[in-house]
Write a structure and sequence with these properties.
seven-stranded mixed sheet, Rossmann fold, single chain, disordered N terminus, L-2-Hydroxyisocaproate Dehydrogenase, Chain A, domain 2, about 20% strand, 2 domains, alpha/beta, about 325 residues
């Protein structure tokens, strides 16, 4: 089904969003359609992708987008066919993923997502635009991105990212609250590794107001409260709210894609990208690094001197992601 309306802007950016009837997509779509990602002078055409039993709900979302009379939204398409959804797209937000079932381990979840992200990667490979950027939001995001990238041999691997911007934003927010500063004052914070409880929010290089923030916090708070709280913030939200993160995940997806497209002006952020061997991370692992965006590309911040504490935490993530890769080796 197709919904369309007229607007006054240049050739639209084509965007696909999977899991389109879900809560994250519901918080994400309006921000894409109002110019927060691709700019206030650029129309967007959005393809909503969902499983067959959720297509009717996605059609309802499309009607709401239409009723919002958004000047930059040129067209909304709804489909359950990835080949249709990804046809000619310049950007894809892969939000939909298989949730963990009762009694399932992480390895079961990884294998369960293979039938989703493998075919989606293949469909992107066959139908997406040459400049496509793919952000995997659905968990386990790092290895889902690896599966999708390996199914898309004609798309450069670095065009497949896993979202760790939510971890980065959480790390900044919790730290800013602790120090009674604004998040925009914090620079050179990073989250290394996996979007899991093993992730390493690293304050070693972080600064604000000309101060090294690692010197502004108690070491015990940093290691025993801050690091685990950032890593387990999602579980904390579920306990308090009774539902998983949605609006904050969508906001982080906006931040990620906007910075990828528009650049970070030299500022650090965190993105999970395929490793090229930086900092001893095995090549190919989709790993969270400190990065900047420049010229439409992510660049890992290199040349950082790491201490034993940092190396130990990074190594734990290397081991976890290597094990995840091995568990889905038949899909790669």
């Amino acid at each position: 089904m197709v919904y369309s309306q007229q607007s006054q802007a240049q050739t639209p950016v084509k965007v696909a969003v999977s899991g389109a009837s879900g809560n994250i997509a519901y918080s994400l779509l309006w921000r894409i359609a109002t110019g927060e990602v691709f700019g206030q002078d650029r129309e967007v055409e959005i393809n909503l992708l969902d499983i067959p039993q959720a297509v009717q709900a996605a059609e309802g979302v499309a009607l709401e987008l239409e009723d919002s009379a958004l000047g930059l939204l040129s067209k909304v398409n709804v489909t359950d066919d990835a080949n249709v959804a990804f046809d000619g797209v310049n950007a894809a937000f892969l939000v939909g993923a298989k949730p963990r079932g009762k009694g399932e381990e992480r390895a079961d979840l990884l294998k369960g997502n293979g039938p989703i992200f493998g075919p989606q990667g293949a469909a992107l490979n066959s139908h997406a635009a040459d400049d496509v950027r793919v952000l995997v939001v659905g968990n386990p995001a790092n290895t889902n991105a690896l599966i999708a990238a390996n199914s898309a041999p004609d798309i450069p691997a670095e065009r497949f990212n896993a979202m760790m911007r939510l971890d980065h934003n959480r790390a900044e927010s919790i730290l800013a609250t602790k120090l009674d500063i604004n998040t925009r004052e914090i620079e050179q914070l990073a989250v290394w590794g996996n979007h899991s409880a093993t992730q390493f929010p690293d304050l070693t290089f972080a600064t604000a107001r000309g101060k090294q923030l690692i010197d502004e916090v108690d070491q015990a708070w940093y290691t025993e409260e801050y690091i685990p709280r950032v890593a387990k913030r999602g579980a904390e939200i579920i306990e308090v709210r009774g539902k998983s993160s949605a609006a904050s995940a969508a906001s982080s997806a906006v931040d990620h894609m906007r910075d990828w497209v528009q650049g970070t002006n030299g500022a650090w952020t965190t993105v999970a990208v395929p490793s090229r061997g930086e900092y001893g991370v095995p090549e190919g692992l989709v790993f969270g690094f400190p990065v900047i965006a420049e010229g439409g590309e992510w660049k890992v911040v290199e040349g950082l001197e790491l201490n034993d504490f940092q190396r130990e935490r990074i190594q734990a993530n290397i081991e976890e992601l290597s094990a995840e890769r091995e568990s889905v080796s038949d899909l790669l």
